[in-house]
Amino acid sequence: MKTLADDQCRKEIRERVGRVQVDSQRRWGKMSAHQMVCHLADSFRGVMGQKSLAPRPMFGRGVIKWIALYAPFPWPHGVKTMPEMDQEIGGTQPAGFEADRWELLQLFERFTRQPRDFVWKPHPMFLELSEEEWMRWGYLHTDHHLRQFGM
Question: Which pTM value belongs to this model?
Answer without folding.
Answer: 0.94
